[in-house]
Design a protein that fits this description.
This protein has 251 residues and is α+β, with helices and mostly antiparallel strands. The protein contains six helices and twelve strands. The mean pLDDT is 91.
């Protein structure tokens, strides 16, 4: 962290490290509920109950990746763009630390080619307590280790792509530095810079056919863009539909 300390912004203090945690998101949420300030980061060497979107588990073997969660307390008008900013930040941080140039697939997948390198999970809470927060978690595959068969078929790691070891601490620090910068941009009303950076990383996926489930039916169209809220804009035969949440299957 020392090498990028001056760029960590709000993430420059309040860092906790665990050799093993159930879930860094759960630990960060507990601290947020107890009043921890924005910028607190929880990281772990492994997770026993790591998870991704839609309740899926996230394989988190010891020493294999970067598993971290940050507490944010964003204004309501930028909440919907936090995940978009996080995707860009993780991709930029990996590139700064390793030279790899990851791409992005809506809403939260960081890719190298057709394989997933990292994922992001944003979970909101505290609204009923008068102190709303967002816990922003990310998991990055760093080393090549045996993953469950269903994960191994679609995942990659930094070291697999590089063909050499990398420094996990530097990867984490660069991701946090990039997130500090992009989150500041959202706070300062420069959301267009964030969405533009996302589009650049996602260019290989925009224009592809997708399908998703809505109102009990499966719909299909072409992914064209994201809007100012971060929703995926899909062109169907009759209209442009904003897809705000749920699972999108890329065809």
């Amino acid at each position: 962290m020392v090498a990028v300390g001056s760029r960590l912004g709000i993430f420059g203090a309040g860092f906790s490290w665990y050799e093993q945690a159930s879930s860094t998101n759960d630990l960060a949420a507990s601290q947020a509920q107890d009043g921890a300030p924005e910028g607190v980061v929880v990281a772990a060497g492994s997770q026993t109950s790591g998870r991704g979107r839609l309740g899926r588990s996230w394989a988190s073997p010891s020493g294999a990746g970067v598993y971290a969660s940050a507490i944010l307390r964003p204004s309501p008008h930028i909440v919907s763009l936090v995940t978009i900013a996080a995707g860009v930040a993780v991709a930029e941080g990996i590139e700064a630390a390793t030279g790899l140039g990851p791409t992005l697939k809506w809403p939260n997948d960081v890719q190298v080619g057709a394989r997933k390198l990292a994922g992001i999970l944003a979970e909101a809470g505290g609204a009923g307590l008068g102190s709303p927060y967002v816990v922003l978690g990310f998991g990055i595959n760093v080393t090549s280790v045996p993953y469950p068969p269903d994960v191994a078929a679609r995942a990659t790691s930094i070291e697999r792509e590089l063909g050499r070891p990398c420094d996990r601490g530097r990867v984490l620090a660069e991701c946090l530095a990039a997130l500090a910068d992009l989150y500041r941009a959202l706070q300062q009303g420069r959301a267009s810079a964030v969405t533009s950076a996302w589009r650049t990383r996602a260019a290989g996926y925009l224009g592809r056919e997708v399908e998703w489930d809505a109102d009990g039916t499966t719909r299909r169209g072409v992914a064209e863009d994201i809007d100012s809220r971060g929703a995926l804009l899909v062109r169907t035969d009759r209209e442009i539909v904003p897809v705000i949440s749920g699972e999108v299957r890329w065809l």
